[in-house]
Amino acid sequence: MRTPEQVGLVSLGLGDEFTARYPELYPNHVAIAGCIRAWAERMVPQLSAVTVGAEPGTVPGSEEDYVLGYARALRDMADMLVDGEGLPDAPLYPIVRTA
Length: 99
Known about the structure:
Elements: H1 9-12, H2 14-21, H3 25-43, H4 63-82, H5 93-98
Helix pairs in contact: 3-4
């Protein structure tokens, strides 16, 4: 899981700002991101040694290619939550709110 420190939010003052502005919501997003990232990481050991580390699209049409893409999407979503993109007035919030 990427912490606010790892993504540079603390050095920018954003991690503290997010926590101050959304004291219940932002820590919850960071916790959810940790769960999502752990889920993605648990998927990778199930892949063959040939596929691990391969970029999506390099093993055409394989189920392992799908799993790699899925794991990457999960990690990207976790990163977006830690980056504060799901908080009110952030880019992802209007999409989530209308879903």
